[in-house]
Amino acid sequence: METVAIAILNFNGKDHLEQFLPSVSKHSDSAKIYVIDNGSTDKSVSFIRSNYPQIEIIINESNYGFAGGYNQGMLSISEDLVVLLNSDVEVTENWLLPLITSMQNTAIAGCQPKIKSFQNRDSFEHAGACGGFIDVDYFPFCRGRLFNDIEVDSGQYETESTVFWVSGAAFMIRNSVFREMNGFDSDFFAHMEEIDLCWRIQRSGLEFKVIPSSTVYHLGGGTMGYESPTKLYLNFRNNLFMLIKNHPGFLIPKLLRRMALDGIAAIKFLIEGKWKFFWVVFLAHVAIYTNFSKMYQKRRALKKYKKKPKGIYSGSILWANFIQRTKTFSDLNQQKMKPGN
């Protein structure tokens, strides 16, 4: 019988812990719960010690970000299966069992539950929804969310599905696989590190699933709001980091195409008067020039992994969403969603 752990990364999140730990503690009897504290300066740690003595606390010396924080914390976790769970997630009764059951298939490296909005409980949540995919230009999207178009959950995505990536908000992974792949790329700091990890793991021959029979509710934007310039910077930069590391074909043409598409987005921000957004896209591209050599070295180290990932949409999600006005995953051309595209 595989052992199970839940690892919650915390940075000055006492309010979230007060609100969301009760559901995790109540509905996770089969799992050992850890809180990885990322150098908090509030009273998070004392709150846990006083109210949840059964929870093990792992102390990081400083804020290593999402990626580095989990990498540090996971060194102290020995359970076979680990759920990386955001501190602003409410879990439901029996949420773990479907995830654990799916992991009996040894070809599966990880999985996620259906992730719905804590505030709008009939709708999917932006960060992960019902499983993640990427398009031909490596823009991420989900069953239940295309860019900012978020669907109401009417039962349209109740089947288990192979996906390209699973959300870091509620990510069950084999501890052995996490360690073998050296965890998240700490250079990402936060955002898209889970997509990069899923890509690397798929290249090694394993798969990811979404398990909609398990449901959690995610507040979202608890650390950085969805309109945060810092968040936008990290998303643009890290998406390009991920491309440089993992794109299987000729790199420079694909990279230039993506940077050109980013440039169009920056011009749109400028027209809309979103000066900070325009600026952070520019800074993200500057970061590509300054970090290209480092990312290229990582690309070379990953060449030994040659398996073709599943869950890549062979069309452009930008074209589908902004030009063809496609607003739901179901309305995408499903012929372009064939496994292995």
CATH architecture of the domain at 4-218: Alpha-Beta Complex
Provide a count of the helices. Answer: 10
Main pleated-sheet profile = 9 strands, mixed
Task: Give the CATH superfamily of the domain at 4-218.
Answer: Spore Coat Polysaccharide Biosynthesis Protein SpsA, Chain A
Helix-and-strand structural type? alpha/beta
Please write the CATH class name of the domain at 4-218: Alpha Beta
**Alpha carbon gap, first and last residue:** 35 Å
Instruction: Fill in the CATH topology of the domain at 4-218.
Output: Spore Coat Polysaccharide Biosynthesis Protein SpsA, Chain A
Q: Quick one: overall form? A: globular
Q: Return the average pLDDT rounded to an integer.
A: 96
Helix content: 25-40%
**H and E order:** EHEHEHEEHEEEEEEEHHEHHHH
Radius of gyration: 19 Å
Low-pLDDT parts are none
Describe the protein's architecture and organization.
- The protein has ten helices and 13 strands.
- It is α/β, with parallel strands linked by helices and 341 residues long.
- The longest helix is centred in the last third of the chain and has 27 residues.
- Helix 7 runs antiparallel to helix 8 and helix 8 runs antiparallel to helix 9.
- It has a domain of 215 residues: Spore Coat Polysaccharide Biosynthesis Protein SpsA, Chain A, CATH 3.90.550.
- The strands form three sheets. Strands 1, 2, 3, 4, 5, 6, 11, 12 and 13 form a nine-stranded mixed beta sheet that branches. Strands 7-8 form a two-stranded antiparallel ribbon. The protein has a two-stranded antiparallel sheet with strand order 9-10.
